[in-house]
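This week, look over our next protein:
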Amino acid sequence: MQVPPQASASNPLLFPEIRNKSLCTDPACYQAKIQALVQLRVEPLVKEGKTPVQISESPSWQVRSKAPNTLYEGQYRRAKREGECPQTQAAVIVDGHKAGTILRICADENCKTHRQFSHYEISPQEREQRRKLALAIRVQKESRSRILQTVRQKLPGALARADFEMVALDYFRRLGHDNHHRLFQVYGWEEKKTKTSWGGKSVDHEKLAADRVRAMTTAELNRFAIVCSLVSDLYCPGYSAAETLSKEANLMRLAARYKVNATKITSKVSAELSAKRKGGRPGDAPPK
């Protein structure tokens, strides 16, 4: 028998992964075959005077272009047998791998028999619990907002020592682990490890920093807050480590403000590291 050109068997080298060698690869032809199969399965029911409903197994909320006179998943519920409820009727699947399958469905959203399978109805007790929880959440949100507004109105023009410590430590906590490590290196602080609840050891940067901050003078605390805003600029991406820091970065803007010659510092570092690599002195010219 001659194989049609749109069948996968006509070109096995092009479709080696397809086990079914008689699969049709022409969309229009394939749909025509599907419709013919559906019509063939429906004919016996039509002869009995029944008109099956066309259904699809695709969810209704995922289908952009819906076929006319077709119900989609979510618009019907399957019945186990004929007469399971007064609204039970025959249906035929018109697409997908199960096209042509005859089954029973109920499309009545208010059906007392099938409603329980598609709709979850909460009990009066659970409804009351949800109402109380929603009220408690609203109370917390509104009360916290009012507390903040009241505190904001009482804040002095100059921060008290305790307020400044709170702001500095809160800023520090938000930096993240990597920047915590960089900041400890800047200050030369020991990253002492302590035992964790799970038995291992780790560095509790927040606790160590809190002890250091509380021992700072007001001037040192001022500088610490500024350093927290600069430490993230120490990060050099591995994929582009040679990329220079932007002039808009906090570190470069502050360097310019306090007349720190960043270009001169970079050139000196380059000369030192190049000389060290060659085994020369810092004043030697860098290698070409």
In short: The radius of gyration is 37 Å.
